[in-house]
Structure formats: C-alpha cells, structure tokens
Amino acid sequence: MTIRVLVADDQAMVREGFSVLLNAMPGIEVVGEAVDGREAVAQVDVLGPDVVLMDIRMPELNGIEATREIVAADSEAKVLVLTTFDLDEYVYQALRAGASGFLLKDASASRLADGVRVVAAGEALLAPSVTRRLITEFSRISVAPRTPVLARVGDLTERETEVLVLIAQGLSNAEIAAQLVVAESTIKTHVSRILVKLGLRDRTQAAVFAYEARLVTPG
C-alpha cells in the first residue's frame, strides 16, 4: 500500500524539496503540505495521512503542540519530527507529545524515505544522538515515577515487562527475539499487547514510558 505523507514546514523550499524527494520514492505519496502547525492539524483531519513530517519551529502553532493535538484527536497519523539540529531543545518534548520518531533535515533522500516507512509501520525512529539525549534527560530527573505509571506497569506480565525494557534499549523485534530465543512473531504479539495494555501508540512511546517508570536505568 502507498504511504500517504503530509509535509509541515514554514519554509516553502523545504516543503517542496521534501515533496519532490518523497514522491520519487516507490510506495510513498505526498498528499499535502502545511505552512504551520495549525494548518498541519487541519490537514491531518481532512487528508488522513499515514505520516506527518513535522518541523518543530513553526509560527501559529509549533510542531510540539501540533503533534500533541494530532495525538489527542486519536488520529491514525504518525508524526516524524524534522529539525535542523540534533540537539534541538524541543526534541524531547516532541517525543513526549507523541511523536513517533526524529530525523535531521540534512538526512539523505533514502534515509528520509526509510524513516517514513519505519514510522508508518509503527516502529520507533530515533537517531543515536537523540537516544543519548533521552537517556541524559531521564538521568537528570530525580523525581520518582508517578503512581499511575507504576500502576500501569503492574498490568504487564513478566515477559512483557522484559520485552518493554529491551524496546527501550533500542532493540528491534528480530534482535529481541534472538536475545530471548523465541520467534519474532511471538515478540510482535508481545509488543502489540504491551501497547494495548499501556494505552500507547507505538514503540517510541513505549520507550519513553519505560524510562518514566524507571524500568530502564540510564547510564
């Protein structure tokens, strides 16, 4: 099936560039563009894209708030955050808001297309530098996990908790299956149940949840 993409960026050249690159890739179609976060939210409602390429710094409504509104509306669209800097101060906030992944704007055409496909498939997409930033952020926070978070952890089986920890460590389904010596299809089932039980959209949110619950010790 063709992956439908909405490109949200306040710079016309960036929008047009990404649109040209993605439309040239097999199985991907850019169905719309948005000049700011407010228009992005509206376009998601009208066009129903599978993936939104979301710039963080935009007028009217920034990418973080736009992502939060899209997620709150229970949209099926996955948000792939784009930014110029890998140390953007808002990256962590965007992931907390529900973004499914992160890419730098200078990513190659093939990397961009792969990112869209990964996010559309419900996988997490985090550049190594962003993963380190995420870990650093949780290391800095000294407060204990909130009671509701701990209560939700209690809904998981021992094996599901184990799988969740490995997701947070950045392992793919195949890598988790190899480590636990089970079939990859079994891991896919565990991941689906984890997301349902915790009320999460994808693996990125699962990773964030695992750190918030202190199931993973940064370091």
Automatic annotation (TrEMBL):
UniProt-recorded Gene Ontology molecular function terms: DNA binding
CDD domains referenced in this protein's UniProt entry, alphabetically: LuxR_C_like, REC_NarL-like
Residues bearing the modification 4-aspartylphosphate: D55
InterPro entries: CheY-like_superfamily (IPR011006), NreC/VraR/RcsB-like_REC (IPR058245), Sig_transdc_resp-reg_C-effctor (IPR016032), Sig_transdc_resp-reg_receiver (IPR001789), Tscrpt_reg_LuxR_C (IPR000792), WalR-like (IPR039420)
Gene Ontology biological-process entries: phosphorelay signal transduction system; regulation of DNA-templated transcription
Domain Response regulatory: 4-120
Keywords: DNA-binding, Phosphoprotein, Transcription, Transcription regulation
Segments forming domain HTH luxR-type: 149-214
Protein name from the UniProt record: DNA-binding response regulator
